[in-house]
Amino acid sequence: xxxxxxxxxxxxxxxxxxxxxxxxxxxxxxxxxxxxxxxxxxxxxxxxxxxxxxxxxxxxxxxxxxxxxxxxxxxxxxxxxxxxxxxxxxxxxxxxxxxxxxxxxxxxxxxxxxxxxxxxxxxxxxxxxxxxxxxxxxxxxxxxxxxxxxxxxxxxxxxxxxxxxxxxxxxxxxxxxxxxxxxxxxxxxxxxxxxxxxxxxxxxxxxxxxxxxxxxxxxxxxxxxxxxxxxxxxxxxxxxxxxxxxxxxxxxxxxxxxxxxxxxxxxxxxxxxxxxxxxxxxxxxxxxxxxxxxxxxxxxxxxxxxxxxxxxxxxxxxxxxxxxxxxxxxxxxxxxxxxxxxxxxxxxxxxxxxxxxxxxxxxxxxxxxxxxxxxxxxxxxxxxxxxxxxxxxxxxxxxxxxxxxxxxxxxxxxxxxxxxxxxxxxxxxxxxxxxxxxxxxxxxxxxxxxxxxxxxxxxxxxxxxxxxxxxxxxxxxxxxxxxxxxxxx
Length: 489
Ligand SMILES: Cc1cc2nc3c(=O)[nH]c(=O)nc-3n(C[C@H](O)[C@H](O)[C@H](O)COP(=O)(O)OP(=O)(O)OC[C@H]3O[C@@H](n4cnc5c(N)ncnc54)[C@H](O)[C@@H]3O)c2cc1C
What we know:
Strand 1 (3-9), helix 1 and strand 2 (29-32) form a beta-alpha-beta unit. The protein is globular. It is α+β, with helices and mostly antiparallel strands. It has 3 domains: 1-86 and 147-221 and 318-380, FAD/NAD(P)-binding domain; 89-143 and 226-315, D-Amino Acid Oxidase, subunit A, domain 2 (D-Amino Acid Oxidase, Chain A, domain 2, 2-Layer Sandwich); 384-478, Arc Repressor Mutant, subunit A (Orthogonal Bundle). The protein has helices spanning 13-22, 61-80, 96-112, 122-128, 150-163, 206-212, 284-297, 343-360, 389-398, 414-421, 430-437, 450-461; strands at 3-9, 29-32, 49-50, 89-93, 118-121, 138-142, 146-147, 167-169, 176-180, 183-187, 192-200, 222-232, 243-246, 256-259, 265-268, 272-273, 306-317, 323-326, 333-337, 405-407, 412-413. Helix 1 packs parallel to helix 5, helix 2 (61-80) packs across helix 8 and helix 10 (414-421) crosses helix 12. The protein starts with a strand and ends in a 28-residue tail after the last helix.
């Protein structure tokens, strides 16, 4: 049995950025993930804001990792060809009390080292954001805030890690851990992975992993808190130039209005504790609440242009800060627990920090001489809709599949989809292809392309259509033909 130096549990932004950072070093790394892809937890469904770092209390780990993560996320986007757009953000004040609060945020931001912060008045705000409510009296402007696609950049980082030797185990939900000598044996009940060091990055389930590891008095409790969103059609994408927050309250950063990196407009989230940490449903009441919240910032947002809704679950801990530290009970175990917002923005810095903790626990890390900085050994790959006319002509000449449009809303070709099926982390479900190419994310929400994508997967994987799933597990799209049923399904 292969014994890895490090096994990372959980393939969200925290686990993947740790894997990517470690892949620049001379150690063997595996990452196991309960779902069929990376970025299937909170990393999939959030506001996608690379926060500037003025919100966290100075001196906390949150503040430090957020500010460094903001810088590193932009560098990572440039290295892996994933757009990270520095569009800035406003925290909007509606009265004098809010304005006083902004001063507090400004001071925290200065203490945290956030560049370019300014408190601006109503006129300057309206000049920058003409659609903002007339009730707004000023804002805190943070030019270093950015937007990106949270799962897009996590997938790109995972492919880069895989290119550099990290081994991914999908559909591997850790159920038990044992140890013999210095080796941990981690199992999902069927397969076992052996490693010297374990990094627990299991998001809303990270406290449960601590329990599975045998830490019965684990000090952190996770309270899952769901946040719902509405995505507006691209015709609304230019209503805001930057991310627009309200002044935060005790319940969090509040409901925002923000352009997305793909040109849509996003409104949300609310925040409610839930019992089932995996419940990502949306509710009529919640969607009404976020519509009202968005109208407070921008009264002209028209939800008749909504194309979809979704929700994500925050792994909110019972302490203020991230709990990222070496286990107090188990040797060679690092926990990344309670990584709530700004956990996405902090991701690349968190990966770096976890590597430091591993070194402090005895892992020897040296720079790899043959590290490949791109997603694939042969470079970063552009999609058809990102190519110039000349590049498109060349792509179709080399591979006629680039001449066949599969998703009309987002101009995704058969060539783009086949390319993702052959990538370092092969995309073999409808949602894996969707999150890599945006096929199915346009105005028709996959009504046109989903059946075609399913047929392509079946042909490429040489399987029957009834084996194709939306997102792994039993999320099949069609029933087997009557004659193929063996004892019913
Ligand atoms: C509504 C909302 C809005 C947010 N907005 C922002 C924002 O704008 N900016 C920002 O910086 N942050 C934001 N956040 C926070 C951010 O999304 C999280 O901090 C970050 O995604 C956490 O990443 P993670 O990798 O720690 O956890 P996750 O992304 O949840 O990943 C954990 C992974 O572990 C896997 N796993 C769980 N149990 C097991 C097991 N037993 N075996 C194997 N694998 C397992 C899960 O399947 C999952 O993929 C927001 C969060 C939410 C919910």
